[in-house]
Each structure stands twice: as structure tokens, then as C-alpha cells.
Amino acid sequence: MTGTVHTAPLPDLLCARCNVPLQLAKVxxxxxxxAFPVELPKCPKCGQVYIEEALALGKMVEVEQQLEDK
Amino acid sequence: xxxxxxxxxEEQCIQECAPPCTAACPLHVDVRxxxxxxxxxxxxxxxxxxxxxxxxxxxxxxVCEQPCRPVCKRGEAGESIAIAALxxxxxxxxxxxxxxxxxxxxxxxxxxxxxxGLSGALAAHDLARKGYTVCLYEALDPVGGSLWSYPEEVLPxxxxxxxxxxxxTLGIEFHxxxxxxxxxxxxxxxxxxxxxxxxxxxxxxxxxxxxxxxxGRVKIDPITYxxxxxxxxxxxxxxxxxxxxxxxxxxADGRRAAISIDRYLQNVSLTASRSGEGSQTxxxxxxxxxxxxxxxxxxxxxxxGYTRPEALAEAQRCLQCQCLECVKVCEYLEHYGRYxxxxxxxxxxxxxxxxxxxxxxxxINSCSLCGLCAQVCPTDLDMGAVNKRARQAMVAQGRxxxxxxxxxxxxxxxxxxAAFALARNAPGADASDYVFFPxxxxxxxxxxxxxxxxxxxxxxLPAGTRVGLLLGCCGAPADWAGRADxxxxxxxxxxxxxxxxxRPKVVLACSSxxxxxxxxxxxxxxxxxxxxxxxxxxxxLGARPGQGQTVSVHDPCTTRQEAGVHANVRALLTxxxxxxxxxxxxxxxxxxxxxxxxxxxxxxxxxxxVVARRVQEGPADYVTYCAMCRDVxxxxxxxTLHLLDLVFGHPGQPGxxxxxxxxxxxxxxxxxxxxxxxxxxxxxxxQAAYESIKLLVSEEVRARLEARLILDEDLQRVIExxxxxxxxxxxxxxxxxxxxxxxTAVTYWVxxxxxxxxxxxxxxxxxRMEIVEDEPAAGQGGVA
Lengths: 70, 784
Hints:
The complex is a heterodimer of chains A (70) and B (784).
Chain A (H helix, E strand, L loop, with lengths): L13 E2 L4 E2 L1 E9 L2 E9 L10 H16 L2
Antiparallel strand pairs in A: 1-2, 3-4
Chain B lengths: L2 H10 L7 H5 L6 H9 L3 H9 L5 H7 L19 H11 L16 E5 L3 H12 L3 E5 L19 H13 L3 E3 L10 H7 L2 E4 L33 E3 L2 H4 L6 H20 L41 H9 L8 H5 L1 H5 L4 H13 L8 H5 L6 H5 L6 H15 L4 H15 L5 E3 L9 E4 L1 H7 L1 H14 L6 E5 L4 H5 L3 H17 L4 E4 L2 H10 L5 E3 H8 L13 E5 L8 H13 L3 E2 L18 H4 L1 H12 L5 E4 L2 H9 L4 E3 H6 L12 H20 L14 E2 L2 H9 L4 H14 L3 E3 L4 E6 L5 E9 L2 E10 L2 E3 L12
Parallel strand pairs in B: 1-2, 1-4, 2-3, 4-5, 7-8, 7-9, 9-10, 11-12, 11-13, 13-14, 15-19
Antiparallel strand pairs in B: 6-8, 16-17, 17-18, 18-19
Helix pairs in contact in B: 1-15, 3-4, 3-6, 3-12, 4-6, 5-6, 6-12, 7-11, 15-18, 20-21, 20-31, 21-31, 25-26
């Protein structure tokens, strides 16, 4: 996962605990000792992050497999 | 894998061995390639392939004695290919592009060839091509030797002249009408040249004062063709004599002598690595019992040889010999497009790589480890054993992709957990004579069979036999995953439980368990349920549910070496009044269903091919005696019954699709709970909090969960965590919640709506990549 991954437009989601909309923020994701900065929707108060299905089953799986074969 | 192991494995695969025709030819003409080109109709390319080995292609097809023909595999299905006639047709109709004569680096050595027959001509040709200055002495004019003795209709004289013209174009210096031994001496020649090849022909009487053999002919070293005099070599019909005349052998002698002279002049070993020269027996295996016989293509006019269309038709009869026995029977080996000789090197490279991409990880994990390759291999090469060792090495190196076997290992952990694992003597007994170990998948697939077999054992075994129950996992998934650590601890646990039960005989209902016990717990006596059924008789004497119906048996791959089991299963089917129509691959040559070795996890595409091929091999319903085989085929729509369905009946729809992954867990848990209650009068302790979460899952969502290998318990854990901690996201318009939780290595996401005390599931997905949160809230270890 080179560089920053831009996800789809910000989803219409609230953090159910803090009752505030999520905002795009830089988040680190990691696998097998490799960390990458990604821009993801995140609760500005409690830090809860959202990963949408297309990202989880698309780019993330791809990168997971690449790293597993390294 | 050490490099020498790799070499030994590479050697074991014979696919790259020369076919019988090429091996038998002392010049190793690539007949297979010639026939392939000719069969395509490209006689130019065919001639080029012939010319690669023989510089006189027009001659060889007319004079060769064809040591290749008696060994041609087509002879086992029709008649051997007319190889020389095919070569003649290549020369007659094919055209060579004007060859660019490469400017050869001249070597400062002078060589002389005595005798302008086939042997001398080929030696002179080869040496000139290597850059030596070659003089050719011939007693007559022109060169050609015994070629001139063939009748014109067999070998037109103009053709001899035309074919030998290549010698002049190579700049060979001709000394015609010059008899060595009469007009000038060998000593004189030897003084001016550093090496001599004597090829005077069958009628030669001159022996030049060289050491002779018992026949009075010049004696030569059989490997190098060196005579007793340094730098002097001899070959061809001169050595063989009139009784041993052979055109093809003369050519081969010329080539061998040229190699010796080249080595002699370069001052390197004359004898090293020469075992491959000359006529050989091929090590290639080519199966012909399944080849339809085809007769020789006749010639309309034998004197003129094949016409072009006749030659094409004859070439098309060539079997294009190759082995590929394993590839033909294995979808996995077929899928990757190569054969074990190539595969073992890829596995080796994958294990040896220090930096870069390990391109064979998926290949190694896609093998079902079923051993069919070894079963059909003429040299017993077992890719399954290679792949299993490779997986263990990958684990030891810390290079096994975590995703490869994770699901199977977690399934195994479930079976070993308190939810399923159990070891009990019969109620009131303090030891067992027999203990039933149904394994994980029979309990998962058809839980009622576990109780039925347990009850059967109590009734069928002699009165007073104490029958216990052992629930758990045999460790096969860990073994397949290369996890020697997990496998060993599973076996250790089984060993301890077995000892605690008084070392009873273990009754197994799964051939994978059986294989694992036999290989890894050899001190434990085991017996398969089918063998007991065959020995002690079927329950409900007189019931013959088959009513003469025909079924086909799919033998589980782990019974490959168990001929007694195969026989017992068929005897049981006969007793149940079924007719058995054997599948083309059964018994020792049966196939894996794709579950073995966790192939289905690593490579669902290969498993789809495996199953698709297997289910269309017979039109009748299949009967098998492995719960996984049954469920795999049934899921693909092939009506497949478990042998126990026929013996004990099936509570639901026999032959139809089995339970989904979540139900498999539930079924195992239910087996334990039910048997504990019914037989031992015990109730199990309370459930974990998440287990009380009620789920509402539509069929569409269920199919998606199955494909994504997401279990109900994964959903329950996410929802339980979200509801308890409040850590969830809300989509205000729909009222749906989205939450995630990472129980161990995988993060699961669930979209759900609470609904009257239950939770309606809209979607779920997962990933292995972790979110590194910078503000971890205390007490919320879920999303690490």
C-alpha cells in the first residue's frame, strides 16, 4: 500500500457513542510488521474508525496477499 | 530442502527424458520435434529440426537403418512411425533458408580426416564447424565412400554430390585419389597435423601399425575412439567391419570422434561426461494402453516415398511421447501448467529466497496432499510429500502466509475446545475396551450418526464390552498447515486421553483420522467403522434399502492404500442391495474432493475444477464414507450419500447439501451436549455471553457469509461487543449500525439492525490488516 489510499466519499455515518459525524483523518494500518498511512473516516472525539466493505475486500486483501508473499 | 534433495527430486521426474526414438538414435535426432512440425504441415521447420542434428538430411532418410523404429511407442498402438520415410519427405519437400554461415573463430590447429564416407564426412563437418583447419583424404574421387554403392533409385547420385557439398562450403581441403598408407604414410600426416581421424570404411585393410583387436581390426577405446597412438582416432565401418556396417552408426562415430579430437586439442578430459552419447534406452514413460491404434500411412508410390499429404498424415500418428501421468490425473498439477520437475525447483526457490516475492506460496498451499501423483508416477515422485515438507519449512522460517490455513486451524481449535472435546468411559465403567472417535466432520455434518454408531457398537460388540466416547480433533488440519507444533500437541493430548481411558481400541469413522492415527499414533490400535460393520453385520438384519439401485463409490483419498477398506465398503453395499458402478478413478487411484491439505482454502478455483471433474465421472448417485467428501460433492449438486446414511438412515434430506460452516460448529456442540445428557446424565455449563445473541440471517446474506467464511459466532462476538461497549457507528437514515471486533487475528465488520430482541444481519466482511489507533480507549481491546 504505497502512499495514501483515498477511499470513497465520506459515508453518512455518525459515531453512535459520541453522536458526531465521522471525518476523514490520517490513520495507520499495519500488517506483518508493515505500517501504512491511510485516510479513513474517523470519529473526531473517540477515534473510532470506519473501514468500508470495498476497501476491506479490495485494496486491503490485495496488499495483505502481497505482504504475505514477501 | 537441500540442493541435493532438489537435484534428486528433479531427477525423479522423467518428463524431460528424451523419447525412445531420440534416445535410441546414436545421433539423437529429435524425431518428436520433426514429427510435430510435419504434423502441422510445416515441412520447412521439420527439415530444420532434422538439419540441427544431421548435416546431410537428404541422405539420412534414405540410408538410415532406423534403430528408432523398434522402440517407437506408436508400435504399441498400431505400427511404429515410418521415421526414415518421414525424414526423407522433409528433405524432399522442405526447404532450408540459406544458412548464414557464422564466421567461426578459427583455431590454430590442423586436423586430418582419412576417408570421405559418412563417418569421415561428419567428423570433418563437425571439426570444421568448430573452427579447426580440416584436410580430408579420400582414396577415390569424389568423396562419398560407400554411399556410391547404393542403387540410384535408393540414393540418387546427384543427391550425394549435393548433400556433401556442405563440406566444401566449410572450407575443408580435399585430397582426392590419395591413399593414406600407400601414397603417403600416417607418420607424414601426423607430422603436419595434430590429430587424425581414420574412417577408411569396411573394406579397409591398412592398419597403420596400430594396436589391433582380436578380429585384427584397429583397436579403439569404446568411449573416445582413441587408438593406441596419441592423437590418432578411428571409427566407422573400418572398425565394425563388413558384418557390422551401419550408416547411422558411422555418422554417430564421426561425431563422437570429432568430440574426442576437440577435447584432445583443447587438452581437457576425453572421458568426462560422455555417458549420454550414442544409442540409449529412454527413461521416458509414455502410456499407450489408452491410445487408439492407427495403422501405418501407406505410400501410393513406394519408390517415390511419401507424398506431402502422406507425410503429414504419418507425422500426425506420432504420439508426441511424454509422461505427465500425474498431471493427467490431478487438476492442481494441471492448473499450474507445468510438471513436477519444474515444480520442485519452484518450491526450492520459494524456500531459498531471501528478499523478494515468494511466488510459489499459493502453489505449495494449493496441493491436497492426497498422493495420487505418487500412485501413478512411474518413479513414485510424491508432490504431496514435497509440498508438506515445504509447508513445514515455511512455518519454521516464519514465512507461512497467516491467511492460508487460519480458518482450518480455528475450526480445529473449536473441535479441541470445551464446546466439543470430550473423553468418557461408558457410564459406570472405569476403563474402556473400545472408544468411538467420530472425528470433527461426521459430527458436524450428520450429528445423528455419532449416536447411531455409538449405539451400534454397544449392541454389536460382544456382551460386556465397555465402549467409551472420545470427541475432538485428530490434528489433520495442523498437519496439513505445516504446523508441526500444533499437530504434535494434538497427538500428545490424544495419547494422554487414550491412556486415561485404559488404552482401548479406537473406532474411527473418518479415513483422514485413520491415516493420522496410523502414521502418528502407531501404538494405538485403530479400526474403521466400515470394517466393524463388515465383520459384525449390519444393524436391522434383513433391511436391504438399495433395492438393486446402482451407485458409484467415491473412495476417500486417505484410503488410497487401504484395499481391505475398499473391499469391505463394497461388500456392505452389496449387503444393502446396491449395485456398484466403479468410477474410472477409484480404489488406490481415487481422487481427493479438494478438502484435503486445505486446498479449498488456499485455492478455491482449483477445488472447483477438482470437484467439477469428479462429479461428472459417473451418472449414478455417489456413495462415500467421508463426511467432507460427501458434503463437498453434494454442495455442487451431485447427489452423494454417506455410507452411514444407508446403514442408519438420515434424519433430513439424504444426498442433499450439508450444513453451513456455522451449523457445523453448532452440530458438534450439540452432539456433545446431547450425548452427555442422554448417556451420562450430565448438563453442560452455561454459555459465553455472545452465544445468547440471536441472529436473523436471510438466505442471500447467508450465502455471502459462507463464501467469506464468516461464522455466526463471529457475528455474535461483534454485536455483543458493540452493544455492551456502545462502540458502533450509526447510519441515521436507515437506523443500521456498523460495528467491528477483532477476536484474534481477523477484524470482522457487521451491519445490523436490532429487531425485537434479535439482530437482523445486513452484511458482514473481514480483513486481516490492523488499524493502529492512536487513542485506544481503556477497556476496549477490540480494535487494536
